[in-house]
Amino acid sequence: xxxxxxxxxxxxxxxxxxxxxxxxxxxxxxLSSAAVVPLLPPSPSPPTAAxxxxxxxxxxxxxxxxxxxxxxxxxxxxxxxDILVKQFSSITAExxxxxxxxxxxxxxxxxxxxxxxxxxSEANGIAIRGHTLLWHRQTPDYFFQGxxxxxxxxxxxxxxxxxxxxxxxxxxxxVVNEVVTDNGSDITAPYRNSRWYQAAGNSKDYIDWAFxxxxxxxxxxxxFLNDYNTETSGKRTRLLAVVKDLIDRGIPIDGVGHQxxxxxxxxxxxxxxxxxDVDALxxxxxxxxxxxxxxxxxxxxxxxxxxxxxxxxxxxxxxxxVINDQAQMYRDLFTGFAARPSVKSVSLWGxxxxxxxxxGFPVERPNYPLLYDKDRKVKKAFQAVSDLNxxx
Length: 392
Ligand code: XIL
Prior knowledge:
Elements: H1 3-24, H2 53-57, E1 63-68, H3 79-87, E2 90-93, H4 99-102, H5 112-123, E3 127-134, H6 148-165, E4 170-177, H7 195-199, H8 205-217, E5 222-227, H9 233-248, E6 255-258, E7 261-263, H10 268-281, E8 286-295, H11 301-306, H12 320-338, E9 343-348, H13 380-386
Parallel strand pairs: 1-2, 1-9, 2-3, 3-4, 4-5, 5-6, 6-8, 7-8, 8-9
Helix pairs in contact: 6-8, 9-10, 10-12, 12-13
The chain binds (3S,4R)-3-hydroxy-2-oxopiperidin-4-yl beta-D-xylopyranoside.
C-alpha cells in the first residue's frame, strides 16, 4: 500500500469514529461502545443544559426567543433546531419576513421560506414574532414611488396581504421599525427623515397607515413600534414622544419593542429604565425586548456611523474575563426583565455566536454576543440566565 492509500484508510476510519460518536450524542450508548477508547480526556465540567432550562426559568414571565436566519436551515435534524425546540419559546425571522424577502416586486409574494419557518415553529409549539412590516432598509424601491396617496395604497395593500397571510400564526408584529431619529436637531425630529417620511409627503402619516392596516387585517396580533438605543436618554425621549402622539390620536399600538443591541459598556439600569418609562407613561402598553445581544467590544459612537475607531478585534481569543462580564450583564438584564410584568417577550438576535450579524457590523470582526458558541455549546451567559445559582 502506498503512503497515500494508507493515509486515506486512516482518514476513513477517523470519519467512521466521529460518525459513531455523533450518532450516540444525547442518547444512551450501547454497552459495546465502552470498547471505543476516547481520543481526548473528558472536559472537567462540560457545558450542558437541561432541557427547557432557559425557557423554563422565565415561563411565568415572558417568552424567550431567538432570531433565525436562513443559514440555519431549520430542519428537524439540525443541532440548531434541537436547541430551539428545547430552550426557546419564540422565534423571529432574522430576514425572511422583511419586505425585500416577502415581496421583491410589486404584487409578487414569496412566502415559501417564511412559511417553512412558521410550520417548523407550529409543529414544535414555538410562537412566532413578526419582523418587520415597515422599515427604511431591506425594502424594494417600488414601495417609495409615486404620490403619497399611491404610497399609502401600496403600503396598506402590502400590510393587509402579509398580516392576513400570517393571521393567527404571528403573535406580535414590529409594524414599524426604526422610525425615530438619532439626531434631536433634525428638522423632522422626533421622526427619522427616512425614505418613508419623504415618500409620505414629508410627513409621519405613513406610521398611522401601517398600524391601521395591520389592526384591520388581524385584530388579535400585538402591534409594536420597534427601535434601537432606547437605553439612551435622548433617543428614548424622542421615541416616547412618537408613541404618545400615536396613543393620543387613537392609533392602534399595543407595545414598544426595545431592540437592545448592547455592548459591555452599555448601562443595564438605563436598559431597564427604558421599560420603566414606557410603564410610567402608558398604562396598558406592553414591552418586548426584540433583538438582544451584547457585543464583547465597547465601541465609540463613530465606529457605528463611520467605522472609525472601533475596538481592536480579539480574533479567536476572547478573554475569559470578558465572557464572565458578559454573563453577569445578561443575568442582570434577565433578572430585571423578570421583575417587570409588562415585559412579555425577550428575544436574542441570533442563536450562536458564529451566526450573529455582529460578525459583520459595524465592522468585520469576530464577535461573541449570544448565549451559544459556534460549537453549539452553552456559554457562561446561558448558564447565568438559566440557573440563577450558577457561579459565574
Ligand atoms: C439585520 C440582520 O441581522 C442581518 O442579517 C441583515 O443583513 C441586516 O439586518 N435592526 C433590525 C434588524 O431591526 O432587522 C437588523 O437585522 C439588525 C438591526
